[in-house]
Amino acid sequence: MKKNNVFILIGLFVIFLTFQACKKDDPSSLGFKMKAVDTGSQNLKSSGAITLLPLNWDTALIVVSELEFEAEYQESNSQGSSEVKVQFEWEGNMTLDLLAEPQVFATYELPDGTYDEIELKVKSKDLPGSGDPNFYLAGTISIPDATVPIVLIVNEDFEIETKVEDWVINTQNGSFYSGLIEISLGQLFNNITFQELIGATLVDGRIVISSSVNAGLYAKIMENIGSSGDCGQDDDDDDD
Predict the structure, then answer these.
(1) Half-sphere exposure of 162 toward its Cβ, with a 13 Å CA cutoff?
(2) 210 with 64: CB under 8 angstroms?
(3) Which of 2, 75, 166, 219 measures 20 to 30 Å from 129, CA to CA?
């Protein structure tokens, strides 16, 4: 009986060592989530230079085709340290609900080291043959004595670029780091006036903004969309 107990203890010890070895060799990883902010005139994250419009959104969908991560990478070793610029790419054509609870949609494996001067580029591409927009908003605009439905339909490629401020990633084996990309729906309508919106062409009782309907408003939004993003460390993530 004692002999069997010895074998069991040896077996458990081997399993423990194997687990520790695997854990040590696990690469660090970085994941990103995305959500919309400034989704209504009553809850703007920060107004800044953004025109305050009586808009409230209940649908916000985006197709993320690629996410590029660039950073200054510093690796330390026995011979000192070196710093180079690195780039990682994720591809997926994933449709995200920007008003739902954010979930990780893109992950990267990161060699151990320090990453700073982080820049992100979100690429959204029109999906030929799908018939669905790659960016879509639906909501309402409040006018005196009425509420009018409004939709934005984007069927063309675009990019959102952002620099990540005050976030330095120091990776360790097996660690997970989470970033949160925020898309400001208020920024999309920067430099668009209330008068322009209420004077827009209606389609079936709705204000429709697309490349073919209310094209002037659409052009302004497409000029704003590239600077509508912000990103930082996801403070709500339990794994950080």
Answers:
(1) 23
(2) no
(3) 219
